[in-house]
Amino acid sequence: MQFDGFPDHVRVDWARSRYSVIRDVFTRATCAGWELETRHLPTRQTCFPGHPQRWAETSYSGSDWAPPCDGLIADPRFLGGLGRATGIPGLSAEGSMTWINRYQPGDEVPEHVDADGDLQLLICLQAPPEPQRGGQTMIQGREVPLATGDVLLWKATLLPHGMSRIESPRLGESGASRVVCVFRLRGAF
Ligand SMILES: O=C(O)CCC(=O)C(=O)O
Ligand SMILES: [Fe+2]
After folding, report:
1. Is 131 in contact with 122 (CB distance < 8 Å)?
2. Of residues 73 and 50, which shows the higher confidence score?
C-alpha cells in the first residue's frame, strides 16, 4: 500500500512535481550544530576538477559507503523534526542511509538519478553563501533553491537531478560552500 500520510503542504507539491520543499524545518543554530558534529565524517565527493565528471553512486550494501551519521540519528530533534515535517511515522536508522555532502568552490554534481532508496530527504545544513552563484539542487534542469534548515522531499531515483556549479569562491562558517545531509529511506512511497 502506498503511504498517503503526507500533510497538505507536502501533498500539493508532491502531486504536481513529485518533490516538495518544506521550509524552515530546522533552525540555523541546529543545522550549524549538526554540521559541526558531522565534520569528521568522510563526504561523498562530488566533482573532479579537470577530469570527466562522474558521481559515484553507492548502495546499501557497498563497503564504500560513508559511515552512518550516528550522532545525528541519535539526536531526537533530527528524526522527530523530519517525522513532523513529512508526516512519515516511525522514521529510524533501520532501512535508511544517511550521509553528508560538503561542497567546495567549483564543485558541481552532474545530472544523475540515485541508484537506491524509495524516498529521499535532503536537509540543507548550510546554504551557499551566494545562492545566486550556484550550489543549488537542480531537478530536471530546474533550480530548487534551499535555505539552511529547509528539507527537500523527493524521489531521487526517479527525478534526474544534480547541483549547479558553485561559482562563488566564498566559504561559509563551516569552511565549506554548502553542506547537505541526505536521508534515504525505503518503504512504500
Ligand atoms: O546536494 C545536492 O543538492 C544533491 C545531492 C545528491 O544528488 C546526492 O547526494 O545524491
Ligand atoms: Fe543524487
Report:
1. no
2. 73
Residues lining ligand 1, Cβ inside 6 A: 44, 101, 109, 114, 122, 137, 156, 161, 163, 180, 182
Pick the closest to residue 183 from 124, 108, 110 (CA basis): 124
Indicate the pTM of the whole model: 0.92
Q: Which atom of ligand 1 lies at the shortest distance from residue 99's CA?
A: 9
Measured from the alpha carbon of residue 127, the closest ligand is: 1
List domains and CATH numbers for the chain.
8-185 (2.60.120.620)
| Contact (Cβ atoms closer than 8 angstroms) between residue 183 and residue 69 | no
C-alpha closest to that of 118 among 96, 94, 146: 96
Q: Give the bridge partners for 143, in sequence order.
A: 138
Give the HSE-up count for residue 98: Cα atoms under 13 Å, Cβ half-sphere.
19
